Queue: 3 jobs
Job 1
Amino acid sequence: MKKLIDTLKNIWSIEELRNRIIFTIALLFVYRVGTHIVLPGINPNLLSDTAGQDGLLGMLNMFAGGAFSNASIFALGIMPYISASIAMQLAQIAIPSIQKMQKEESGRKKVQMYTRYLTVVVTLFQAIGYITFLRTQNGPAIMADNFLWMISTVIILVTGTLFVMWMGEKITDKGIGNGTSLLIMAGIIARFPQNLVAEFQKTASGGAGKGLLIFLIEIALMIVVIMAIILLSQAVRRIPINYARRMVGGASSAADVAGNRDFIPLKVNSAGVMPIIFAQAIMFIPSMFSSFAPSPDSWIAKLSDYTSLGYNAIYAIMVIAFTYLYTAIIMNPQQMADDLKRNNGFIPGVKPGSDTSNFIGTVLDRITLPGAIFLAVIGIMPGIAALLGVTQGFAQFYGGTSMLIAVQVILDTLQQIESHLLMRHYDGLMDTGRMGGRQPRTAPTGI
């Protein structure tokens, strides 16, 4: 406890870090307030409690922190910006000119500008779709459904998304952590207390002693899942690298001492949460046609049930496949080998060039398989929890997108706080040294 108090004092004593944390909390507070401001022309008392709670809409509502079902000015949240960012990442692979722009500072600014423009376009289409959703699910809540209301609502939704995007960028620049990820995490965590209370009330109905025991077991299992996610997020395979000795005036350069070994850190889960998001998006397609199913026992109806065996089997396979696909997109062994060669680095026992590229690719394939399987298991945990009787809202915190995003964002934010502490010669957040997944020195820039 004393260690924690001393660490908090050290954090507060650093003026820059203190200001960054206060700035971040202030913008997160503004975001949470905005999620409860209802769109003009909407009667909040007539909104349906079940609208947007299932399927793809349920995931959007989760990412928006409940703003989607609240018909808030931030109803679309940060998702249009994320969609535009993913589209630009894929464009970098397909379009060489964009990939070239990304290597220069001025080019990166242009790519960021294009991403913002694309966000506006995506938000316009999603705003029109959201208005259609409101008319279908919450028609009575619209007090004046006319053309003027539709135009004003589209403008407000687009402005709200751009304001959320601006807050995310400001948090990244002047706050602590990744702003976009923190906004998503804030929406996810905000739903936890309500779901926790609902789960406690459900278990308590089974009897005072028995219900409390079941609830404590559920909490213990959730802690185990969180520990497993941390292990998955932080696990790395370090490939040792050496640098050739450079001779300056007949003597070794002080900056390149022979025998000083660095590492290429290859994460076991390089793809992060993206495979689960992609797999969920595809698995939501059957739910769109489930209403046309001839009976609840038909195959399309079962594929719409996230607790069914067929759903979870297909979902797990897709997570594994998307993990390999996304890892191949973001990790380039050939570029790593070229960067090593350019910096006079080499892997002991491996020839530079194509041999190094093949070696890195082989290691990456081997560590990706257990990481992909582990990620698939984490992805189907909410379905297993719901099948065992956990309420739907609380089951989402047993893994899946919600918990993966929350844990990874918290770890990233804590690592940034630790970096500020270590730069000013304070102790880190861990008694055993730096937080896992961070090395004192890494491979050359670009790896």
Job 2
Amino acid sequence: MKLTTTTQVSVDGVMQGPGAPVAGVAERGAFERDGWAHFDTEAGTVMDEIYQRADAFLFGRRTYEMFAASWGAWPDPGDSPIWTALHTKPKYVASTTLTEPRWANTTVLSGDVAAAVAELKARPGGELQVHGSGALFPWLLDNELADEMTLFTFPVVVGQGTRLFPDTGRDRALELVDSRATPSGVTIQVYRPAGRPQYAT
């Protein structure tokens, strides 16, 4: 399977709290600006199409808990590709603290996560998808386990919160695979890692 990541991000790089707060799941730090990502019809259609390609999901613990408390608790709306994918495809959680996942069809990866993810990727199938997962995402990039990443960039400056990339870290070049803009100004870019960037001398 190809490991793909999908992230909702603001123009200033914030990935925290794109949706409404989830009851019972604490935010990281003193963050009060949830709900800044507003999908128009076209962006929603693209997100539906992404979920329809999933053969399995990989989450960090915090994102898993948010999804389990929201998508995992909602009744079947009957017409949601996202709900259907999340409830019918295997879910894996990279965590050393989660012992009793409350969502059916969930497996906790608590040992050698890199080896476990590599084993999942070696299985036949389409996509092993990572959504959100702010701590897991950079770790996957640093361990060269992510094959492709999709960014939904929303036309807003949030001004606080966890950012997709920290102030310091590894440098990397990216190959732009696809790019589009929706009527409300959401830009959707698909990138593949392309080694190290070249710098001017």
Job 3
Amino acid sequence: MPAENQAAKNAFLRNDDVACFDGPPRELVGYGEHPPMVRWEGEAKVAVNIVVNEEEGSEKTYAMGDGVNDGMYELPFEQDLTRDLAKESMYEYGSRAGIWRLFRVFDQAGINATIFGAAVAIERNPEVGRKIAARGDDIVGHGYRWSNHFEMTREEEKMAIEAAVASIKRTVGERPLGWYCREMSTNTRSLLVEEGGFLYDSDNYSDDLPYWTTVDAKAHLVVPYTLVTNDCRYIMGTGFGSPDDFFAYGKAAIDRLLNDGDDCGRMMTIGVHPRISGHPARSDGLARLIDYAQNLDDVVIMRRLDIANKFIEQVPAPQGEGHE
């Protein structure tokens, strides 16, 4: 058999991804039939975490010298080789109006949210940083800018993480203990562990519970995020046509987690964006979903940091080979 054909056959038969590519191994085997029997605040079975992706003003634009205008626009239009003022103004809506409407929704419900904050977005609207601190919402690093980390070299990514931590500490008053960037690289998790100040990361969509993994021989906590109960589906792909769709989808998720065929507790994330759910009708769908969750006995709305700490209390980091 010619050498090139044998190589192709070996690649087809190989089941070890790491033999082919750099980066961490796939983690396809999770808790299986026996997830940990966690409970949340007030012994609730389901913990709901509401995440606000604060990105506006940090996205790629010609105005900021990126040579491209970012996506996630309300209409499928692209304007190349020049600034797209319409798209810029959509993002500005989130910063000018949307984020404040979301804060009012949370204030009326008496709850805290988690802010996935792109550092530059808060730098450019420092009143948002002060509001996050005053409300007691927890802050998760969402990159220095809202840009893809897989496009960076390892050194560039390290500098971006360090810059984000320093910036958020200035604008919000405390450093982020969690991390979720835009499209992580194969270096991201290792760099977070190397930085040393992160309790967990959320660059993951693979479970309904936090879990421990191993990074550079150290135990590292992952608190998964979601793109399913997420308002990006209003404007991307097959998703929500109305606030009723958003509410129904979230309600169905909560109902199933409460009656999931076992007695295990789980978590649920609701991801929103000021430029999307900050609009009146969409924020109403979010408010109705929050109200529904608050009126269920076995559901609690928690900050992401509190979910991480509550999980660690009940499922401490593993000890032994491969962990410190």
